[in-house]
């Protein structure tokens, strides 16, 4: 139960930080989220984080990697294996997925 709570808290934090980054990318004075009213110094700190070289390098690398994906590991609520089978029946050309290889 505790792990589930931590996972949900982490997901909420990532979503919140993503919303803050989207607001920052608007580059408007009014882009500051309402969460930071009365805490403008914290918004400035977060903006400095978004402007840092380390963040920009990681952001651009992740953006490029997402663009290179040819297939996602999940497709909604159904398992990927069922989705792939449906696509195969429809005649779609699917990439070859290699399973575990035993090295002896």
Can you tell me about this structure?
The protein is mainly alpha-helical and about 100 residues long. It has four helices and no strands. It has helices spanning about 1-25, 40-50, 55-65, 80-90. The longest helix is centred in the first third of the chain and has 24 residues, at about 1-25. It starts with a helix and ends in a 15-residue tail after the last helix. The model has no long low-confidence stretch (mean pLDDT about 80).
Descriptive tags:
104 residues; mainly alpha; 4 helices; elongated
| Main β-sheet description | none
Beta-strand percent range: under 5%
Structural class from helices and strands?
A: mainly alpha
Q: Describe the global form.
A: elongated
Distance linking N and C termini: 40 Å
Q: Considering DSSP H and I runs of 4 or more, what fraction of the residues is helical? A: 55-70%
- List low-pLDDT spans: none
Write the element-wise H/E pattern from the N-terminal end onward.
HHHH
| Helical segment count | 4
Task: Give the mean pLDDT.
Answer: 81
Instruction: Compute the number of strand runs.
Output: 0
Radius of gyration, CA atoms, in whole angstroms: 20 Å
Question: How would you summarize this macromolecular structure in one to three sentences?
Answer:
With 104 residues, this protein is an all-alpha fold. 59% of the residues lie in helices and 0% in strands. The longest helix has 24 residues, at 2-25.
């Amino acid at each position: 139960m505790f792990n589930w709570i931590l996972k949900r808290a982490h997901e909420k934090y990532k979503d919140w930080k993503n919303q803050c980054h989207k607001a920052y990318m608007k580059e408007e004075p009014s882009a500051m989220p309402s969460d930071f009213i009365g805490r403008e110094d914290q918004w400035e700190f977060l903006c400095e984080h978004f402007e840092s070289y380390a963040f920009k390098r990681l952001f651009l690398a992740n953006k490029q990697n997402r663009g290179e994906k040819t297939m996602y590991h999940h497709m909604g609520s159904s398992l990927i294996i069922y989705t792939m089978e449906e696509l195969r029946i429809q005649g779609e050309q699917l990439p070859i997925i290699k399973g575990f290889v035993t090295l002896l």
